[in-house]
Amino acid sequence: MANQPNHENAEHITSFEQTFSVDKLLDVAIIGAGFSAICLAIQLRKSGINNFAIFEKTDSLGGTWHDNTYPGAACDVPSHLYSYSFEMRHNWSKRFSEQSEILKYLNECATKYLVRRHIFFDTEIIEARFQEDKGVWQIFTSSGKSYCTKILVSGMGQLNIPNTPAIPGLAQFQGKQFHSARWNHEIDLRGKKVAIVGTGASAIQFVPEVAKQAGELTVFQRSANWIVPKPDRVYSAREIWVYENFPLVQKLYRTLIYLQMEISHPLLHQGNRLGKLAEKFARWNIQRQIKDPNVAAKLTPDYPVGCRRILISNDYYPTFNLPHVSLVTDNITRIEADRIITNNGAEYEAEVIIFGTGFKSTEFLTPVEFVGKSAQKLNDYWQTGAEAYLGMTVSEFPNFFMMYGPNTNLGHNSIIFMFECQVRYIVQAVEKLINEKLTSIEVRQEVMDNYNHNIQRDLTETVWAADCHSWYKNDSGKITNNWPHTTIDYWLKTRQPNWTEFILQSASTKQETVGSAPIREAS
Length: 523
Ligand code: NAP
Description:
Blueprint: H1 10-19, E1 25-31, H2 35-46, E2 52-55, H3 64-67, H4 99-112, E3 119-120, E4 125-131, E5 136-141, E6 146-154, E7 176-179, E8 193-197, H5 203-211, E9 216-220, E10 227-228, H6 237-245, H7 247-262, H8 273-289, H9 293-298, E11 311-312, H10 316-319, E12 325-328, E13 332-336, E14 339-342, E15 347-349, E16 352-355, E17 369-371, H11 378-381, E18 400-402, H12 415-435, E19 438-443, H13 445-459, H14 487-494, E20 502-506, E21 512-513
Parallel strand pairs: 1-2, 1-6, 2-3, 4-17, 6-18, 7-16, 8-9, 8-16, 9-12, 10-11
Antiparallel strand pairs: 4-5, 5-6, 13-14, 14-15, 19-20, 20-21
Helix pairs in contact: 2-12, 6-7, 12-14
Bound molecules: NADP nicotinamide-adenine-dinucleotide phosphate.
NADP nicotinamide-adenine-dinucleotide phosphate binds next to loops.
Protein backbone atom coordinates (compact mmCIF):
# COMPACT_ATOMS: atom_id res chain seq x y z
CA MET A 1 0.00 0.00 0.00
CA ALA A 2 1.02 3.63 -0.32
CA ASN A 3 3.14 5.32 2.32
CA GLN A 4 1.21 7.06 5.03
CA PRO A 5 0.05 10.30 3.46
CA ASN A 6 0.92 13.63 4.96
CA HIS A 7 -2.40 15.44 5.24
CA GLU A 8 -5.58 15.79 7.19
CA ASN A 9 -8.40 13.21 7.12
CA ALA A 10 -6.05 10.28 7.47
CA GLU A 11 -8.86 8.21 8.97
CA HIS A 12 -10.60 8.23 5.60
CA ILE A 13 -7.60 6.73 3.92
CA THR A 14 -7.27 4.17 6.64
CA SER A 15 -10.85 3.10 6.09
CA PHE A 16 -10.29 2.76 2.35
CA GLU A 17 -7.06 0.88 2.89
CA GLN A 18 -8.84 -1.50 5.22
CA THR A 19 -11.40 -2.39 2.58
CA PHE A 20 -8.95 -2.32 -0.28
CA SER A 21 -7.04 -5.37 -1.38
CA VAL A 22 -4.24 -5.28 -3.92
CA ASP A 23 -5.82 -8.27 -5.64
CA LYS A 24 -9.10 -6.47 -6.07
CA LEU A 25 -9.91 -5.23 -9.56
CA LEU A 26 -10.61 -1.50 -9.55
CA ASP A 27 -13.36 -0.09 -11.75
CA VAL A 28 -11.35 3.07 -12.33
CA ALA A 29 -7.77 4.13 -11.59
CA ILE A 30 -6.88 7.79 -11.96
CA ILE A 31 -3.29 9.01 -12.25
CA GLY A 32 -2.69 12.38 -10.55
CA ALA A 33 -4.75 14.25 -7.96
CA GLY A 34 -5.15 17.67 -9.56
CA PHE A 35 -8.22 19.72 -10.50
CA SER A 36 -9.44 17.34 -13.22
CA ALA A 37 -8.93 14.17 -11.15
CA ILE A 38 -10.77 15.55 -8.11
CA CYS A 39 -13.63 16.54 -10.39
CA LEU A 40 -13.82 13.03 -11.86
CA ALA A 41 -13.65 11.44 -8.41
CA ILE A 42 -16.53 13.59 -7.17
CA GLN A 43 -18.70 12.72 -10.15
CA LEU A 44 -17.87 9.00 -9.95
CA ARG A 45 -19.02 9.00 -6.32
CA LYS A 46 -22.16 10.92 -7.28
CA SER A 47 -22.87 8.20 -9.85
CA GLY A 48 -22.51 5.53 -7.18
CA ILE A 49 -19.15 4.29 -8.47
CA ASN A 50 -16.92 3.97 -5.42
CA ASN A 51 -14.50 1.27 -6.48
CA PHE A 52 -11.85 3.64 -7.75
CA ALA A 53 -8.47 4.94 -6.65
CA ILE A 54 -6.38 7.99 -7.39
CA PHE A 55 -2.61 7.52 -7.53
CA GLU A 56 -0.71 10.67 -6.64
CA LYS A 57 3.09 10.82 -6.71
CA THR A 58 3.41 13.62 -4.14
CA ASP A 59 2.10 13.73 -0.58
CA SER A 60 -0.68 16.23 -1.34
CA LEU A 61 -3.43 16.85 -3.83
CA GLY A 62 -3.69 19.92 -6.04
CA GLY A 63 -1.52 19.12 -9.09
CA THR A 64 -0.26 22.36 -10.61
CA TRP A 65 -1.67 24.33 -7.65
CA HIS A 66 0.34 22.16 -5.28
CA ASP A 67 3.54 22.37 -7.36
CA ASN A 68 3.55 26.09 -8.16
CA THR A 69 4.08 27.94 -4.89
CA TYR A 70 6.22 30.75 -6.28
CA PRO A 71 5.60 34.23 -4.87
CA GLY A 72 2.80 35.96 -6.74
CA ALA A 73 1.35 32.68 -8.10
CA ALA A 74 -2.26 33.33 -9.04
CA CYS A 75 -4.78 32.29 -11.63
CA ASP A 76 -5.38 34.43 -14.69
CA VAL A 77 -9.01 33.29 -14.95
CA PRO A 78 -11.48 34.81 -12.45
CA SER A 79 -12.10 32.43 -9.54
CA HIS A 80 -15.87 32.57 -9.82
CA LEU A 81 -15.34 30.75 -13.12
CA TYR A 82 -12.11 28.90 -12.28
CA SER A 83 -13.99 26.60 -9.89
CA TYR A 84 -16.42 23.71 -10.30
CA SER A 85 -19.91 24.65 -11.50
CA PHE A 86 -21.39 22.35 -8.85
CA GLU A 87 -19.29 23.79 -6.02
CA MET A 88 -19.27 27.56 -6.26
CA ARG A 89 -17.63 29.63 -3.52
CA HIS A 90 -19.30 32.85 -2.48
CA ASN A 91 -16.28 34.12 -0.55
CA TRP A 92 -13.41 34.32 -3.04
CA SER A 93 -11.33 37.15 -1.64
CA LYS A 94 -10.47 38.71 -4.98
CA ARG A 95 -11.26 38.38 -8.66
CA PHE A 96 -8.05 36.50 -9.53
CA SER A 97 -7.30 34.32 -6.52
CA GLU A 98 -3.84 33.40 -5.41
CA GLN A 99 -2.46 29.87 -5.39
CA SER A 100 -3.05 29.25 -1.66
CA GLU A 101 -6.74 30.14 -1.93
CA ILE A 102 -7.24 27.87 -4.96
CA LEU A 103 -5.42 25.01 -3.27
CA LYS A 104 -7.55 25.48 -0.14
CA TYR A 105 -10.69 25.37 -2.30
CA LEU A 106 -9.59 22.13 -3.92
CA ASN A 107 -8.75 20.56 -0.56
CA GLU A 108 -12.14 21.57 0.80
CA CYS A 109 -13.86 20.01 -2.23
CA ALA A 110 -11.95 16.75 -1.73
CA THR A 111 -12.91 16.66 1.93
CA LYS A 112 -16.56 17.60 1.40
CA TYR A 113 -17.12 14.96 -1.28
CA LEU A 114 -15.14 12.25 0.57
CA VAL A 115 -12.57 11.93 -2.18
CA ARG A 116 -9.49 11.74 0.05
CA ARG A 117 -10.18 8.17 1.05
CA HIS A 118 -9.57 7.15 -2.57
CA ILE A 119 -6.15 8.79 -2.90
CA PHE A 120 -2.93 6.81 -2.65
CA PHE A 121 -0.38 9.51 -1.89
CA ASP A 122 3.37 9.14 -2.50
CA THR A 123 2.52 6.58 -5.15
CA GLU A 124 4.07 7.21 -8.53
CA ILE A 125 2.77 5.23 -11.48
CA ILE A 126 5.58 4.53 -13.94
CA GLU A 127 4.01 2.03 -16.32
CA ALA A 128 0.57 0.89 -17.45
CA ARG A 129 -0.08 -2.19 -19.63
CA PHE A 130 -3.35 -3.21 -21.23
CA GLN A 131 -4.02 -6.93 -20.87
CA GLU A 132 -5.99 -7.71 -24.00
CA ASP A 133 -7.15 -11.14 -22.89
CA LYS A 134 -8.74 -9.80 -19.71
CA GLY A 135 -9.63 -6.30 -20.84
CA VAL A 136 -7.90 -4.70 -17.85
CA TRP A 137 -5.03 -2.30 -17.31
CA GLN A 138 -2.23 -3.35 -15.02
CA ILE A 139 -0.46 -0.36 -13.52
CA PHE A 140 2.94 -0.40 -11.85
CA THR A 141 4.29 1.93 -9.18
CA SER A 142 7.88 3.11 -8.75
CA SER A 143 8.07 1.07 -5.55
CA GLY A 144 7.34 -2.16 -7.41
CA LYS A 145 3.65 -2.63 -6.61
CA SER A 146 0.98 -3.22 -9.20
CA TYR A 147 -2.79 -2.80 -9.38
CA CYS A 148 -5.42 -3.78 -11.94
CA THR A 149 -8.24 -1.61 -13.19
CA LYS A 150 -10.98 -1.86 -15.78
CA ILE A 151 -10.64 1.76 -16.82
CA LEU A 152 -7.52 3.90 -16.59
CA VAL A 153 -7.73 7.70 -16.61
CA SER A 154 -4.86 10.16 -16.79
CA GLY A 155 -5.31 13.34 -14.80
CA MET A 156 -1.68 14.32 -15.30
CA GLY A 157 -2.39 17.44 -17.33
CA GLN A 158 -0.18 19.24 -19.82
CA LEU A 159 2.06 21.24 -17.50
CA ASN A 160 3.54 18.87 -14.97
CA ILE A 161 7.13 18.29 -16.13
CA PRO A 162 9.28 21.39 -15.47
CA ASN A 163 11.58 22.35 -18.31
CA THR A 164 15.05 23.46 -17.20
CA PRO A 165 17.17 24.24 -20.25
CA ALA A 166 20.44 22.35 -20.58
CA ILE A 167 22.64 25.45 -20.71
CA PRO A 168 26.35 24.60 -20.98
CA GLY A 169 28.06 25.02 -17.62
CA LEU A 170 24.88 24.97 -15.53
CA ALA A 171 26.21 22.08 -13.45
CA GLN A 172 29.27 24.16 -12.54
CA PHE A 173 27.19 27.03 -11.16
CA GLN A 174 28.20 27.51 -7.51
CA GLY A 175 25.19 29.55 -6.43
CA LYS A 176 21.62 28.33 -5.85
CA GLN A 177 19.28 27.47 -8.69
CA PHE A 178 15.75 26.16 -8.99
CA HIS A 179 12.74 26.02 -11.33
CA SER A 180 9.70 28.15 -10.54
CA ALA A 181 7.48 25.04 -10.26
CA ARG A 182 9.83 23.75 -7.52
CA TRP A 183 10.36 27.04 -5.69
CA ASN A 184 12.98 26.79 -2.98
CA HIS A 185 11.48 28.81 -0.13
CA GLU A 186 14.57 28.14 2.01
CA ILE A 187 16.64 30.51 -0.08
CA ASP A 188 16.65 34.06 1.19
CA LEU A 189 16.71 36.35 -1.84
CA ARG A 190 17.09 39.56 0.16
CA GLY A 191 19.94 41.66 -1.16
CA LYS A 192 21.15 38.92 -3.52
CA LYS A 193 22.16 39.09 -7.16
CA VAL A 194 19.32 37.17 -8.74
CA ALA A 195 18.97 36.09 -12.39
CA ILE A 196 15.63 34.99 -13.79
CA VAL A 197 15.59 33.04 -17.06
CA GLY A 198 12.27 33.10 -18.93
CA THR A 199 9.50 35.66 -19.14
CA GLY A 200 6.32 33.60 -19.57
CA ALA A 201 3.05 33.33 -17.63
CA SER A 202 4.75 32.23 -14.41
CA ALA A 203 7.72 34.63 -14.58
CA ILE A 204 5.58 37.72 -15.07
CA GLN A 205 3.95 36.86 -11.76
CA PHE A 206 7.11 36.29 -9.72
CA VAL A 207 9.49 38.84 -11.31
CA PRO A 208 7.82 41.78 -9.46
CA GLU A 209 7.90 39.81 -6.19
CA VAL A 210 11.57 38.87 -6.54
CA ALA A 211 12.40 42.49 -7.43
CA LYS A 212 11.04 43.52 -4.01
CA GLN A 213 13.73 41.43 -2.32
CA ALA A 214 16.72 41.11 -4.63
CA GLY A 215 19.66 43.50 -4.42
CA GLU A 216 20.13 43.21 -8.17
CA LEU A 217 17.78 41.48 -10.58
CA THR A 218 18.63 40.52 -14.15
CA VAL A 219 15.80 39.14 -16.25
CA PHE A 220 16.82 37.11 -19.32
CA GLN A 221 14.14 37.28 -21.99
CA ARG A 222 14.34 35.06 -25.07
CA SER A 223 11.23 36.58 -26.60
CA ALA A 224 8.60 39.01 -25.37
CA ASN A 225 4.96 38.26 -24.57
CA TRP A 226 1.89 40.40 -25.08
CA ILE A 227 0.72 41.62 -21.69
CA VAL A 228 -2.47 43.53 -20.96
CA PRO A 229 -3.70 45.05 -17.66
CA LYS A 230 -5.14 42.64 -15.08
CA PRO A 231 -8.67 43.68 -14.08
CA ASP A 232 -8.19 42.48 -10.52
CA ARG A 233 -9.88 43.72 -7.36
CA VAL A 234 -10.75 42.63 -3.84
CA TYR A 235 -14.40 41.65 -3.32
CA SER A 236 -16.19 43.79 -0.77
CA ALA A 237 -17.91 42.26 2.27
CA ARG A 238 -21.22 43.36 0.80
CA GLU A 239 -20.62 41.52 -2.49
CA ILE A 240 -19.64 38.37 -0.63
CA TRP A 241 -22.80 38.69 1.47
CA VAL A 242 -24.91 38.99 -1.70
CA TYR A 243 -23.29 35.89 -3.24
CA GLU A 244 -23.82 33.96 -0.03
CA ASN A 245 -27.45 34.89 0.39
CA PHE A 246 -28.51 35.04 -3.25
CA PRO A 247 -26.76 32.13 -5.01
CA LEU A 248 -28.65 32.95 -8.19
CA VAL A 249 -26.86 36.29 -8.37
CA GLN A 250 -23.56 34.45 -8.10
CA LYS A 251 -24.59 32.03 -10.83
CA LEU A 252 -25.44 34.97 -13.04
CA TYR A 253 -22.08 36.58 -12.28
CA ARG A 254 -20.28 33.34 -13.16
CA THR A 255 -22.26 33.04 -16.39
CA LEU A 256 -21.43 36.62 -17.33
CA ILE A 257 -17.70 36.00 -16.84
CA TYR A 258 -17.99 32.82 -18.93
CA LEU A 259 -19.82 34.60 -21.77
CA GLN A 260 -17.42 37.53 -21.66
CA MET A 261 -14.51 35.13 -22.16
CA GLU A 262 -16.34 32.98 -24.71
CA ILE A 263 -17.14 35.92 -26.99
CA SER A 264 -13.43 36.79 -27.14
CA HIS A 265 -12.87 33.56 -29.12
CA PRO A 266 -12.77 35.31 -32.56
CA LEU A 267 -9.61 37.05 -31.32
CA LEU A 268 -7.88 33.72 -31.82
CA HIS A 269 -8.54 33.71 -35.56
CA GLN A 270 -5.76 34.98 -37.78
CA GLY A 271 -6.35 38.45 -39.21
CA ASN A 272 -9.30 39.14 -36.94
CA ARG A 273 -10.02 42.85 -36.34
CA LEU A 274 -10.42 42.19 -32.62
CA GLY A 275 -6.84 40.88 -32.59
CA LYS A 276 -5.59 44.07 -34.24
CA LEU A 277 -7.43 46.18 -31.66
CA ALA A 278 -6.01 44.04 -28.85
CA GLU A 279 -2.51 44.58 -30.27
CA LYS A 280 -2.98 48.35 -30.28
CA PHE A 281 -4.15 48.18 -26.71
CA ALA A 282 -1.21 46.01 -25.66
CA ARG A 283 1.27 48.37 -27.37
CA TRP A 284 -0.29 51.30 -25.54
CA ASN A 285 0.06 49.34 -22.30
CA ILE A 286 3.82 49.05 -22.87
CA GLN A 287 4.27 52.70 -23.82
CA ARG A 288 2.37 54.00 -20.83
CA GLN A 289 4.21 51.83 -18.28
CA ILE A 290 7.83 51.69 -19.46
CA LYS A 291 9.91 54.82 -19.11
CA ASP A 292 12.93 53.83 -21.23
CA PRO A 293 12.01 53.53 -24.94
CA ASN A 294 14.82 50.97 -25.50
CA VAL A 295 13.38 48.73 -22.80
CA ALA A 296 9.87 49.28 -24.21
CA ALA A 297 11.09 48.15 -27.64
CA LYS A 298 12.66 45.03 -26.15
CA LEU A 299 9.41 44.19 -24.36
CA THR A 300 7.35 44.47 -27.56
CA PRO A 301 6.67 41.12 -29.24
CA ASP A 302 7.13 40.65 -33.00
CA TYR A 303 4.20 38.29 -33.57
CA PRO A 304 0.41 38.71 -33.50
CA VAL A 305 -1.49 38.95 -30.22
CA GLY A 306 -2.81 35.55 -29.13
CA CYS A 307 -0.16 33.46 -30.92
CA ARG A 308 0.99 32.70 -27.38
CA ARG A 309 -1.10 33.01 -24.25
CA ILE A 310 -2.10 36.66 -23.68
CA LEU A 311 -0.75 37.51 -20.25
CA ILE A 312 -2.27 39.84 -17.68
CA SER A 313 -0.33 41.89 -15.15
CA ASN A 314 -0.31 45.32 -13.57
CA ASP A 315 3.09 45.13 -11.93
CA TYR A 316 5.37 43.34 -14.43
CA TYR A 317 6.20 46.27 -16.74
CA PRO A 318 6.71 48.84 -13.91
CA THR A 319 9.32 46.48 -12.43
CA PHE A 320 11.65 47.36 -15.32
CA ASN A 321 11.62 51.02 -14.29
CA LEU A 322 13.34 50.11 -11.03
CA PRO A 323 17.06 51.02 -10.85
CA HIS A 324 18.19 47.57 -9.66
CA VAL A 325 16.30 45.63 -12.37
CA SER A 326 17.66 45.05 -15.86
CA LEU A 327 16.35 43.24 -18.92
CA VAL A 328 18.72 41.22 -21.09
CA THR A 329 17.59 40.00 -24.49
CA ASP A 330 20.87 38.51 -25.71
CA ASN A 331 20.90 34.73 -25.77
CA ILE A 332 22.56 32.90 -22.91
CA THR A 333 25.47 30.84 -24.21
CA ARG A 334 26.93 29.45 -20.99
CA ILE A 335 26.94 29.61 -17.25
CA GLU A 336 30.06 29.73 -15.07
CA ALA A 337 30.54 29.35 -11.32
CA ASP A 338 29.09 32.76 -10.47
CA ARG A 339 27.88 34.30 -13.72
CA ILE A 340 25.84 34.00 -16.88
CA ILE A 341 27.47 34.74 -20.25
CA THR A 342 25.52 35.86 -23.32
CA ASN A 343 26.31 35.55 -27.03
CA ASN A 344 27.82 39.04 -27.22
CA GLY A 345 30.32 38.12 -24.49
CA ALA A 346 28.60 40.14 -21.75
CA GLU A 347 28.80 38.67 -18.24
CA TYR A 348 26.16 38.92 -15.53
CA GLU A 349 27.02 37.94 -11.96
CA ALA A 350 24.44 35.81 -10.17
CA GLU A 351 24.12 34.25 -6.73
CA VAL A 352 20.76 32.68 -7.50
CA ILE A 353 19.29 31.57 -10.84
CA ILE A 354 15.54 31.04 -11.09
CA PHE A 355 14.24 29.23 -14.15
CA GLY A 356 10.79 30.39 -15.24
CA THR A 357 11.26 28.31 -18.36
CA GLY A 358 7.94 26.51 -18.49
CA PHE A 359 7.09 22.87 -18.93
CA LYS A 360 7.66 19.98 -21.34
CA SER A 361 4.12 20.56 -22.53
CA THR A 362 4.09 18.59 -25.78
CA GLU A 363 5.42 15.40 -24.23
CA PHE A 364 2.09 14.83 -22.50
CA LEU A 365 2.08 11.59 -20.52
CA THR A 366 5.81 10.96 -21.01
CA PRO A 367 6.80 10.08 -17.44
CA VAL A 368 4.50 7.06 -17.56
CA GLU A 369 4.90 4.35 -20.17
CA PHE A 370 1.50 3.33 -21.54
CA VAL A 371 1.45 0.05 -23.45
CA GLY A 372 -1.77 -0.67 -25.34
CA LYS A 373 -2.94 -3.43 -27.69
CA SER A 374 -0.29 -5.47 -29.50
CA ALA A 375 2.38 -4.07 -27.14
CA GLN A 376 2.01 -0.67 -28.80
CA LYS A 377 3.67 2.11 -26.79
CA LEU A 378 1.87 5.42 -26.60
CA ASN A 379 5.12 7.36 -27.00
CA ASP A 380 5.88 5.51 -30.26
CA TYR A 381 2.30 5.97 -31.40
CA TRP A 382 2.66 9.71 -30.78
CA GLN A 383 6.06 10.11 -32.44
CA THR A 384 4.81 12.86 -34.75
CA GLY A 385 2.84 14.56 -32.00
CA ALA A 386 0.18 13.62 -29.46
CA GLU A 387 -3.38 13.23 -30.67
CA ALA A 388 -6.56 11.69 -29.38
CA TYR A 389 -10.28 11.64 -30.05
CA LEU A 390 -11.84 14.65 -28.30
CA GLY A 391 -8.52 14.88 -26.43
CA MET A 392 -9.64 11.94 -24.32
CA THR A 393 -9.25 8.59 -25.95
CA VAL A 394 -6.86 6.87 -28.34
CA SER A 395 -7.41 4.01 -30.75
CA GLU A 396 -5.35 0.90 -29.83
CA PHE A 397 -5.54 1.97 -26.16
CA PRO A 398 -8.94 0.64 -25.03
CA ASN A 399 -10.46 1.60 -21.68
CA PHE A 400 -8.03 4.49 -21.40
CA PHE A 401 -9.10 8.13 -21.09
CA MET A 402 -7.27 11.39 -20.57
CA MET A 403 -8.33 14.65 -19.01
CA TYR A 404 -6.66 17.82 -20.36
CA GLY A 405 -5.27 15.64 -23.14
CA PRO A 406 -4.09 16.69 -26.64
CA ASN A 407 -5.84 19.68 -28.23
CA THR A 408 -8.00 20.57 -25.26
CA ASN A 409 -6.08 23.55 -23.90
CA LEU A 410 -7.77 26.93 -24.25
CA GLY A 411 -6.58 30.41 -25.13
CA HIS A 412 -9.76 32.25 -24.13
CA ASN A 413 -11.74 30.55 -21.36
CA SER A 414 -11.59 28.46 -18.19
CA ILE A 415 -10.03 25.01 -18.43
CA ILE A 416 -12.33 23.87 -15.61
CA PHE A 417 -15.21 24.03 -18.11
CA MET A 418 -13.32 21.58 -20.34
CA PHE A 419 -12.59 19.29 -17.37
CA GLU A 420 -16.28 19.12 -16.52
CA CYS A 421 -17.13 18.20 -20.14
CA GLN A 422 -14.49 15.45 -20.07
CA VAL A 423 -15.64 14.14 -16.72
CA ARG A 424 -19.26 13.92 -17.93
CA TYR A 425 -18.10 11.94 -20.98
CA ILE A 426 -15.77 9.61 -19.08
CA VAL A 427 -18.33 8.83 -16.36
CA GLN A 428 -20.77 7.76 -19.09
CA ALA A 429 -18.12 5.46 -20.53
CA VAL A 430 -17.42 3.95 -17.11
CA GLU A 431 -21.15 3.38 -16.57
CA LYS A 432 -21.50 1.79 -20.01
CA LEU A 433 -18.60 -0.58 -19.38
CA ILE A 434 -19.83 -1.60 -15.93
CA ASN A 435 -23.58 -1.77 -16.61
CA GLU A 436 -23.26 -3.65 -19.90
CA LYS A 437 -20.44 -5.86 -18.59
CA LEU A 438 -18.19 -4.88 -21.47
CA THR A 439 -14.55 -5.85 -21.49
CA SER A 440 -13.40 -2.96 -23.65
CA ILE A 441 -14.34 0.35 -25.18
CA GLU A 442 -12.06 1.58 -27.94
CA VAL A 443 -12.47 4.50 -30.31
CA ARG A 444 -12.38 3.47 -33.96
CA GLN A 445 -9.17 4.38 -35.74
CA GLU A 446 -10.95 6.07 -38.65
CA VAL A 447 -13.06 8.18 -36.29
CA MET A 448 -9.98 9.40 -34.44
CA ASP A 449 -7.97 10.01 -37.63
CA ASN A 450 -10.76 11.95 -39.28
CA TYR A 451 -11.32 13.99 -36.13
CA ASN A 452 -7.63 14.94 -35.92
CA HIS A 453 -7.41 15.72 -39.61
CA ASN A 454 -10.20 18.26 -39.10
CA ILE A 455 -8.73 19.65 -35.88
CA GLN A 456 -5.36 20.28 -37.56
CA ARG A 457 -7.09 21.82 -40.59
CA ASP A 458 -9.06 24.19 -38.35
CA LEU A 459 -5.98 25.07 -36.30
CA THR A 460 -4.28 26.46 -39.41
CA GLU A 461 -6.75 29.35 -39.29
CA THR A 462 -5.91 30.28 -35.72
CA VAL A 463 -3.33 32.77 -34.43
CA TRP A 464 -1.40 29.89 -32.87
CA ALA A 465 -0.41 28.83 -36.39
CA ALA A 466 1.21 32.24 -36.99
CA ASP A 467 4.98 32.61 -37.00
CA CYS A 468 5.79 32.28 -33.31
CA HIS A 469 7.01 29.40 -31.21
CA SER A 470 5.01 28.45 -28.13
CA TRP A 471 4.38 25.58 -25.76
CA TYR A 472 1.30 24.78 -27.83
CA LYS A 473 3.46 23.33 -30.65
CA ASN A 474 5.93 20.49 -30.81
CA ASP A 475 9.35 20.77 -32.46
CA SER A 476 7.94 20.12 -35.92
CA GLY A 477 5.38 22.91 -35.48
CA LYS A 478 2.29 20.71 -35.04
CA ILE A 479 -0.16 22.31 -32.60
CA THR A 480 -0.73 19.47 -30.16
CA ASN A 481 -2.14 21.32 -27.19
CA ASN A 482 -4.93 23.69 -28.17
CA TRP A 483 -8.61 23.40 -28.96
CA PRO A 484 -9.42 25.57 -31.98
CA HIS A 485 -13.14 26.10 -31.39
CA THR A 486 -15.36 27.56 -28.70
CA THR A 487 -15.97 25.78 -25.41
CA ILE A 488 -19.65 25.51 -26.41
CA ASP A 489 -18.52 23.46 -29.43
CA TYR A 490 -16.59 21.17 -27.11
CA TRP A 491 -19.56 20.84 -24.77
CA LEU A 492 -21.81 19.89 -27.71
CA LYS A 493 -19.36 17.24 -28.91
CA THR A 494 -18.83 15.70 -25.51
CA ARG A 495 -22.33 15.83 -23.96
CA GLN A 496 -22.93 12.19 -24.80
CA PRO A 497 -20.65 9.59 -26.33
CA ASN A 498 -21.78 8.36 -29.72
CA TRP A 499 -21.22 4.65 -29.20
CA THR A 500 -21.18 3.93 -32.93
CA GLU A 501 -17.78 5.62 -32.91
CA PHE A 502 -16.41 2.92 -30.62
CA ILE A 503 -15.64 -0.76 -30.78
CA LEU A 504 -17.41 -2.27 -27.81
CA GLN A 505 -16.33 -5.70 -26.75
CA SER A 506 -17.86 -8.02 -24.18
CA ALA A 507 -16.74 -11.36 -22.79
CA SER A 508 -19.67 -13.24 -24.37
CA THR A 509 -19.43 -11.74 -27.83
CA LYS A 510 -15.82 -11.65 -28.93
CA GLN A 511 -16.52 -8.39 -30.66
CA GLU A 512 -19.71 -6.40 -30.66
CA THR A 513 -19.93 -3.48 -33.01
CA VAL A 514 -22.84 -1.11 -32.71
CA GLY A 515 -23.94 0.18 -36.11
CA SER A 516 -21.51 1.54 -38.61
CA ALA A 517 -19.03 4.23 -37.72
CA PRO A 518 -20.13 7.64 -38.85
CA ILE A 519 -17.37 10.13 -39.44
CA ARG A 520 -18.08 13.33 -37.55
CA GLU A 521 -16.77 16.69 -38.60
CA ALA A 522 -14.59 18.48 -36.07
CA SER A 523 -16.32 21.79 -36.59
P1 NAP B 1 5.94 29.61 -20.57
O1 NAP B 1 4.82 30.57 -20.66
O2 NAP B 1 6.09 28.58 -21.60
O3 NAP B 1 7.26 30.49 -20.46
C1 NAP B 1 8.52 29.91 -20.48
C2 NAP B 1 9.54 31.03 -20.61
O4 NAP B 1 10.83 30.46 -20.57
C3 NAP B 1 9.43 31.78 -21.94
O5 NAP B 1 9.73 33.12 -21.73
C4 NAP B 1 10.49 31.07 -22.78
O6 NAP B 1 11.01 31.86 -23.81
C5 NAP B 1 11.54 30.84 -21.74
N1 NAP B 1 12.44 29.77 -22.11
C6 NAP B 1 12.12 28.47 -22.32
N2 NAP B 1 13.22 27.76 -22.64
C7 NAP B 1 14.24 28.66 -22.64
C8 NAP B 1 15.62 28.56 -22.91
N3 NAP B 1 16.17 27.40 -23.28
N4 NAP B 1 16.37 29.69 -22.82
C9 NAP B 1 15.81 30.86 -22.50
N5 NAP B 1 14.51 31.03 -22.23
C10 NAP B 1 13.74 29.93 -22.30
O7 NAP B 1 5.93 28.82 -19.17
P2 NAP B 1 5.23 29.24 -17.82
O8 NAP B 1 5.51 30.66 -17.54
O9 NAP B 1 5.59 28.26 -16.79
O10 NAP B 1 3.72 29.09 -18.17
C11 NAP B 1 3.23 27.95 -18.86
C12 NAP B 1 1.75 27.92 -18.83
O11 NAP B 1 1.36 27.67 -17.49
C13 NAP B 1 1.01 29.19 -19.17
O12 NAP B 1 0.89 29.48 -20.52
C14 NAP B 1 -0.30 28.96 -18.52
O13 NAP B 1 -1.16 28.18 -19.30
C15 NAP B 1 0.11 28.22 -17.28
N6 NAP B 1 0.16 29.18 -16.20
C16 NAP B 1 -1.01 29.68 -15.84
C17 NAP B 1 -1.06 30.60 -14.88
C18 NAP B 1 -2.39 31.12 -14.52
O14 NAP B 1 -2.46 32.19 -14.02
N7 NAP B 1 -3.46 30.37 -14.77
C19 NAP B 1 0.10 31.06 -14.26
C20 NAP B 1 1.29 30.52 -14.65
C21 NAP B 1 1.32 29.58 -15.62
P3 NAP B 1 10.26 31.91 -25.23
O15 NAP B 1 9.07 32.78 -24.96
O16 NAP B 1 11.20 32.48 -26.17
O17 NAP B 1 9.88 30.49 -25.53
